[in-house]
Design a protein that fits this description.
The complex is a heterodimer of chains A (115) and B (113). Chain A contains no helices and twelve strands. Chain A is mainly beta and 115 residues long. In chain A, the strands form three sheets. In chain A, strands 2, 5, 6, 10, 11 and 12 form a six-stranded mixed sheet that branches. Chain B has no helices and eleven strands. Chain B is globular. Chain B starts with a strand and ends with a strand. The chains are: A mainly beta (115), B mainly beta (113). The interface between A and B is medium-sized, with 28 and 28 residues.
Protein backbone atom coordinates (compact mmCIF):
# COMPACT_ATOMS: atom_id res chain seq x y z
CA UNK A 1 0.00 0.00 0.00
CA UNK A 2 1.14 3.51 -0.71
CA UNK A 3 1.56 6.26 1.89
CA UNK A 4 2.45 9.94 1.95
CA UNK A 5 4.31 11.93 4.60
CA UNK A 6 4.27 15.69 4.91
CA UNK A 7 6.65 16.40 7.75
CA UNK A 8 5.86 20.09 8.16
CA UNK A 9 2.40 20.85 9.49
CA UNK A 10 2.98 24.61 9.25
CA UNK A 11 5.44 26.71 7.28
CA UNK A 12 5.67 30.47 7.89
CA UNK A 13 7.45 32.49 5.22
CA UNK A 14 7.81 36.17 4.44
CA UNK A 15 6.20 37.60 1.35
CA UNK A 16 8.42 37.43 -1.76
CA UNK A 17 10.68 34.82 -0.13
CA UNK A 18 11.07 31.33 -1.62
CA UNK A 19 9.34 28.33 -0.09
CA UNK A 20 9.64 24.56 -0.22
CA UNK A 21 6.96 22.24 1.08
CA UNK A 22 8.20 18.71 1.61
CA UNK A 23 6.51 15.48 0.60
CA UNK A 24 7.82 11.93 0.81
CA UNK A 25 5.97 8.88 -0.36
CA UNK A 26 6.25 5.15 0.12
CA UNK A 27 5.30 2.62 -2.51
CA UNK A 28 6.69 -0.63 -3.86
CA UNK A 29 5.64 0.28 -7.41
CA UNK A 30 5.60 3.36 -9.60
CA UNK A 31 3.11 6.02 -8.61
CA UNK A 32 1.40 9.15 -9.80
CA UNK A 33 2.00 12.17 -7.56
CA UNK A 34 -0.10 15.27 -6.99
CA UNK A 35 -0.13 18.53 -5.10
CA UNK A 36 -3.44 20.12 -4.18
CA UNK A 37 -4.19 23.49 -2.57
CA UNK A 38 -7.07 24.24 -0.23
CA UNK A 39 -8.16 27.75 0.64
CA UNK A 40 -10.20 28.21 3.87
CA UNK A 41 -13.59 26.54 3.79
CA UNK A 42 -13.20 25.40 0.21
CA UNK A 43 -12.56 22.17 -1.61
CA UNK A 44 -9.19 21.11 -2.96
CA UNK A 45 -7.81 22.33 -6.26
CA UNK A 46 -5.10 20.59 -8.26
CA UNK A 47 -1.81 22.51 -8.41
CA UNK A 48 0.24 20.06 -10.44
CA UNK A 49 0.79 16.38 -11.10
CA UNK A 50 3.58 14.00 -12.04
CA UNK A 51 2.67 11.03 -14.18
CA UNK A 52 5.91 10.22 -16.04
CA UNK A 53 8.65 11.87 -18.08
CA UNK A 54 10.39 15.04 -16.96
CA UNK A 55 10.96 15.06 -13.23
CA UNK A 56 10.37 18.81 -12.96
CA UNK A 57 6.69 19.61 -13.13
CA UNK A 58 5.26 23.08 -13.43
CA UNK A 59 1.83 23.94 -12.13
CA UNK A 60 -0.51 26.83 -11.64
CA UNK A 61 0.21 30.01 -9.68
CA UNK A 62 3.99 29.74 -10.26
CA UNK A 63 4.45 26.52 -8.30
CA UNK A 64 6.67 23.66 -9.40
CA UNK A 65 7.66 20.29 -7.98
CA UNK A 66 10.47 17.87 -8.58
CA UNK A 67 10.07 14.11 -8.54
CA UNK A 68 13.06 12.34 -7.02
CA UNK A 69 12.72 8.58 -7.30
CA UNK A 70 15.84 7.72 -5.32
CA UNK A 71 14.71 9.84 -2.38
CA UNK A 72 11.01 9.04 -2.92
CA UNK A 73 10.23 12.73 -2.67
CA UNK A 74 8.02 15.20 -4.48
CA UNK A 75 8.75 18.60 -2.91
CA UNK A 76 6.75 21.67 -3.90
CA UNK A 77 8.56 24.96 -4.51
CA UNK A 78 7.83 28.55 -5.36
CA UNK A 79 10.60 31.13 -5.85
CA UNK A 80 8.60 34.08 -4.50
CA UNK A 81 5.40 33.73 -2.50
CA UNK A 82 2.49 36.14 -2.31
CA UNK A 83 -0.02 36.77 0.44
CA UNK A 84 -2.60 35.01 -1.71
CA UNK A 85 -0.60 31.76 -1.45
CA UNK A 86 -1.64 31.43 2.18
CA UNK A 87 -3.49 28.12 2.19
CA UNK A 88 -3.13 24.46 3.08
CA UNK A 89 -1.25 22.23 0.66
CA UNK A 90 -1.74 18.50 0.30
CA UNK A 91 0.50 15.97 -1.36
CA UNK A 92 -1.20 12.86 -2.75
CA UNK A 93 -0.23 9.59 -4.42
CA UNK A 94 -2.12 7.23 -6.70
CA UNK A 95 -1.20 3.93 -8.32
CA UNK A 96 -1.25 3.99 -12.14
CA UNK A 97 -3.50 1.01 -12.70
CA UNK A 98 -6.81 0.61 -14.47
CA UNK A 99 -10.18 0.63 -12.80
CA UNK A 100 -10.55 2.02 -9.30
CA UNK A 101 -7.54 3.95 -8.10
CA UNK A 102 -7.21 4.86 -4.46
CA UNK A 103 -5.76 8.31 -3.89
CA UNK A 104 -3.89 8.67 -0.61
CA UNK A 105 -3.34 12.13 0.87
CA UNK A 106 -0.80 13.48 3.28
CA UNK A 107 -1.86 15.34 6.42
CA UNK A 108 -1.29 18.73 4.80
CA UNK A 109 1.03 21.69 5.28
CA UNK A 110 -0.34 25.11 6.16
CA UNK A 111 1.59 27.83 4.39
CA UNK A 112 1.40 31.17 6.16
CA UNK A 113 2.76 34.09 4.16
CA UNK A 114 3.80 36.97 6.39
CA UNK A 115 3.55 40.51 4.97
CA UNK B 1 -17.42 21.40 -18.82
CA UNK B 2 -17.81 19.35 -15.68
CA UNK B 3 -19.05 20.70 -12.38
CA UNK B 4 -19.64 19.21 -8.96
CA UNK B 5 -22.15 20.50 -6.46
CA UNK B 6 -22.34 19.70 -2.79
CA UNK B 7 -24.98 20.73 -0.25
CA UNK B 8 -25.68 21.90 2.31
CA UNK B 9 -22.54 24.00 2.76
CA UNK B 10 -22.94 24.12 6.55
CA UNK B 11 -24.98 22.07 8.95
CA UNK B 12 -25.40 22.09 12.71
CA UNK B 13 -27.08 19.00 14.07
CA UNK B 14 -27.73 17.58 17.55
CA UNK B 15 -26.29 14.25 18.61
CA UNK B 16 -28.57 11.41 17.61
CA UNK B 17 -30.17 13.21 14.67
CA UNK B 18 -30.02 11.91 11.09
CA UNK B 19 -27.77 13.26 8.35
CA UNK B 20 -27.97 13.56 4.60
CA UNK B 21 -25.31 15.25 2.48
CA UNK B 22 -25.76 15.30 -1.27
CA UNK B 23 -23.34 15.56 -4.14
CA UNK B 24 -24.03 15.73 -7.86
CA UNK B 25 -21.72 15.87 -10.84
CA UNK B 26 -22.66 17.43 -14.17
CA UNK B 27 -21.09 17.21 -17.59
CA UNK B 28 -19.74 13.67 -17.43
CA UNK B 29 -21.04 10.12 -17.18
CA UNK B 30 -20.05 7.09 -15.12
CA UNK B 31 -17.60 8.95 -12.89
CA UNK B 32 -15.89 7.41 -9.90
CA UNK B 33 -17.27 9.18 -6.83
CA UNK B 34 -15.72 9.69 -3.42
CA UNK B 35 -16.58 10.99 0.05
CA UNK B 36 -13.72 12.28 2.18
CA UNK B 37 -13.77 13.67 5.70
CA UNK B 38 -11.30 16.26 6.82
CA UNK B 39 -10.58 16.74 10.52
CA UNK B 40 -8.13 19.33 11.84
CA UNK B 41 -4.55 18.11 11.57
CA UNK B 42 -5.54 14.74 10.14
CA UNK B 43 -5.60 15.35 6.43
CA UNK B 44 -8.23 13.72 4.25
CA UNK B 45 -9.73 10.41 5.26
CA UNK B 46 -11.42 8.44 2.50
CA UNK B 47 -14.84 7.29 3.71
CA UNK B 48 -16.55 5.79 0.66
CA UNK B 49 -16.01 5.39 -3.04
CA UNK B 50 -18.25 4.23 -5.86
CA UNK B 51 -17.45 3.00 -9.36
CA UNK B 52 -21.09 2.76 -10.48
CA UNK B 53 -24.76 2.96 -9.53
CA UNK B 54 -25.45 0.98 -6.38
CA UNK B 55 -21.77 0.05 -5.99
CA UNK B 56 -20.40 1.41 -2.73
CA UNK B 57 -17.17 0.52 -1.00
CA UNK B 58 -16.35 1.59 2.53
CA UNK B 59 -12.82 2.34 3.59
CA UNK B 60 -13.30 2.48 7.35
CA UNK B 61 -15.99 1.23 9.73
CA UNK B 62 -18.03 4.12 11.06
CA UNK B 63 -21.40 5.60 11.82
CA UNK B 64 -21.98 6.67 8.23
CA UNK B 65 -23.29 5.13 5.03
CA UNK B 66 -23.32 6.13 1.37
CA UNK B 67 -25.59 5.53 -1.57
CA UNK B 68 -25.49 6.15 -5.29
CA UNK B 69 -29.05 6.11 -6.56
CA UNK B 70 -28.17 7.69 -9.91
CA UNK B 71 -25.04 7.78 -12.06
CA UNK B 72 -24.00 11.25 -10.99
CA UNK B 73 -25.48 11.45 -7.50
CA UNK B 74 -23.71 10.44 -4.32
CA UNK B 75 -25.31 10.71 -0.88
CA UNK B 76 -23.71 10.46 2.55
CA UNK B 77 -26.04 9.52 5.39
CA UNK B 78 -26.26 8.68 9.03
CA UNK B 79 -29.19 7.49 11.11
CA UNK B 80 -27.82 8.84 14.39
CA UNK B 81 -25.00 11.37 14.49
CA UNK B 82 -22.18 11.21 17.01
CA UNK B 83 -20.02 14.09 18.24
CA UNK B 84 -17.10 12.49 16.44
CA UNK B 85 -18.91 12.89 13.11
CA UNK B 86 -18.18 16.61 13.15
CA UNK B 87 -15.88 17.69 10.34
CA UNK B 88 -15.56 18.99 6.82
CA UNK B 89 -16.94 16.56 4.26
CA UNK B 90 -15.71 16.65 0.70
CA UNK B 91 -17.21 14.98 -2.32
CA UNK B 92 -14.97 14.32 -5.30
CA UNK B 93 -15.15 12.69 -8.70
CA UNK B 94 -12.70 11.24 -11.21
CA UNK B 95 -12.87 9.92 -14.74
CA UNK B 96 -12.90 6.14 -14.80
CA UNK B 97 -9.51 4.66 -15.66
CA UNK B 98 -7.76 8.03 -15.73
CA UNK B 99 -4.64 9.20 -13.97
CA UNK B 100 -6.11 9.60 -10.53
CA UNK B 101 -6.70 13.35 -10.53
CA UNK B 102 -9.67 14.18 -8.34
CA UNK B 103 -12.09 17.07 -8.74
CA UNK B 104 -13.54 18.28 -5.47
CA UNK B 105 -16.74 19.96 -4.43
CA UNK B 106 -16.79 22.98 -2.15
CA UNK B 107 -17.35 20.90 0.96
CA UNK B 108 -19.95 20.62 3.71
CA UNK B 109 -19.08 21.61 7.25
CA UNK B 110 -20.92 19.51 9.81
CA UNK B 111 -21.01 20.43 13.49
CA UNK B 112 -22.61 17.95 15.84
CA UNK B 113 -23.58 19.40 19.22
Amino acid sequence: AQSVTQLDSQVPVFEEAPVELRCNYSSSVSVYLFWYVQYPNQGLQLLLKYLSGSTLVKGINGFEAEFNKSQTSFHLRKPSVHISDTAEYFCAVSLPSGGYQKVTFGTGTKLQVIP
Amino acid sequence: SQTIHQWPATLVQPVGSPLSLECTVEGTSNPNLYWYRQAAGRGLQLLFYSVGIGQISSEVPQNLSASRPQDRQFILSSKKLLLSDSGFYLCAWRWTGATGELFFGEGSRLTVL
